[in-house]
Amino acid sequence: MKALLLQPNLVEQVRDAIVEEIASGQLSPGERIIQEQIAQELGVSRQPVQQALLLLRNQGILRDAPGRGLIVAPLDPEHVQHMYDIRAVLEGLACRQAAMAQSRQAAQQGAALLDEGRLAVASGSVARMIVADTRFHEFLYGLSGNPLIASALAAHLTYTQRLMGEVLMRDPTQTPLDLWDQHEAILDAICAGDPERAESLVRTHITRALDVIVARLKAAQPTSDEAPAVP
After folding, report:
1. C-alpha angle with apex 100: 99 to 103, nearest 5 degrees?
2. Is residue 82 exposed (0-12), middle (13-18) or buried (19+ Cβ within 10 Å)?
3. Which helix (H) or strand (E) holds 32?
4. Pairing relation of β-strands 70-72 and 62-64?
């Protein structure tokens, strides 16, 4: 982690820095969070770290550790499934409405976001890739003209960013550039004013990411036949 400058949104910066460490695999599920270490690495006092950790605990990114303190919460396949089911429906609606009413704006502004995403991939930075991915999807929400779509999905944004890291680092079937090829196809459908195709493509895009995450999480779970480890 790099030191942060003191700014009014310092708590948000600390939160984002911790999420970045989790999404990039630097902090693993079950790993204990050391408050003093985070404060030292980021060059901040303990107070913004405490507030950021509380936010992440409330968002389900962290959980109480046995005894005291916090650990990185394991990902729950069922929760991920429910969240992505909702996301597929809402993003499908966003793309449908965007194709019906905002194809010109999509054509004018969308290409720059695709370029940003591919530059992020070229940088090799998972953090940059997550930021670019988030901006693209938020652009789709804005094109819909329905502000409730963005506000409904914002409640799950931090958790979604964590899951993006899982897809970017652990999907053996595609590279991060493939994801941006999918984004380009979604944008092309919107620009062409094709609501059915735009909705179908974004649903497939989200469902594919869901399948990767859930399959990995289920594979990592111990089976009922496995005997507990002998101390």
Report:
1. 50
2. exposed
3. strand 32-33
4. antiparallel
**What pTM was computed for the model?**
0.81
Q: Are residues 195 and 167 part of one domain?
A: yes
Give the angle subtended at the CA of 84 by the CAs of 80 and 85, to the nearest 5°.
115
45 and 103 share one domain: no
A 10 A CB-CB count for 84 gives 21
Are both 104 and 182 inside the same structural domain? Answer: yes
> Which residue has tokens 């991939």?
121
SS3 131: helix
Within-domain flag for 83: yes
Q: What distance lies between CA 50 and its chain's CA centroid?
A: 23
Buried-state track 98-123, b at ≥16 Cβ within 10 A, e below 16:
bbebbbeebeeebeebbebbbebbee
Question: CB of 197 within 8 A of CB of 188?
Answer: no
Q: List pLDDT tens digits, range 3-30.
A: 655 555 899 899 989 988 888 888 888 9
